[in-house]
Amino acid sequence: MSVRTLVVDDEAPARRRIRRLLAAEDGVTVIGECGDGASAVSLIETMRPDLVFLDIQMPERDGFEVVKAIPPAKLPAILFVTAYDQYALRAFDVHAVDYLLKPFTADRFRTALTRARARIARRAEDPGLATLATTLRSRPVYLSRLPVRTGGRTVFVEMGAVDWLEAADNYVRLHVRQREYLVRETLGSLEARLDPDRFVRIHRSAIVGIDRVAETRATSHGDAEVLLRDGTKLTASRTWREGLQQVLAFHFRK
Known about the structure:
Layout: E1 3-8, H1 12-23, E2 28-34, H2 37-47, E3 51-55, H3 63-69, E4 77-82, H4 86-95, E5 98-101, H5 106-122, H6 127-138, E6 145-150, E7 153-158, E8 164-168, E9 171-176, E10 179-183, H7 187-191, E11 199-203, E12 206-209, E13 213-218, E14 224-228, E15 233-236, H8 238-253
Parallel strand pairs: 1-2, 1-3, 3-4, 4-5
Antiparallel strand pairs: 6-7, 8-9, 8-12, 9-10, 11-12, 13-14, 14-15
Helix pairs in contact: 2-3, 3-6
């Protein structure tokens, strides 16, 4: 029986290379490919592949969030593909079928595929991956890095380095240590993925890093002026001012 395979990676060259390597293997059928986590969830649910090559850092949803979104009983065999996240590698070494660390050789690829075939052939539930999925469902997984396309390349912005985020229509402008990056996402959708212990909404168009706040000053209109450590001045509107003060009081009391 042919192994029905889905390839998920936000870089087209990476997808092409995996497809080329799979084309040299007997008994494997690539049933589709996609470049973001949201599409991956949709395709896994509708196409029910036996095996998924799943990148970690992607737009919309990363590899963790894809696993979290699929019920454990419906999870296919997963081969994670990554270039950087050492914490993830340790987790995948325990829970996943295998992982491929970019750049990987054809021999390493074949070894991972052999392990996946064996897992699929046993037709047994993957207890490790099911455990990972259950764990992810039981606790929030906040965004740690955000892929940003700029000048024909992709930059992975560490969220811990972000000073503040600004709404710009259907985009978000990240202010990162005197640099700016534009992400095609709404501020509201991005806010839902941010760690509330690190970021707080101060305005309908602004979110700040809590530890970047140096000072707040009340204004005559019920708003507050927020001064960041780098000298940036922002406005906390009345809607979010009280919440900001509560967050700051709790944060700096710890």
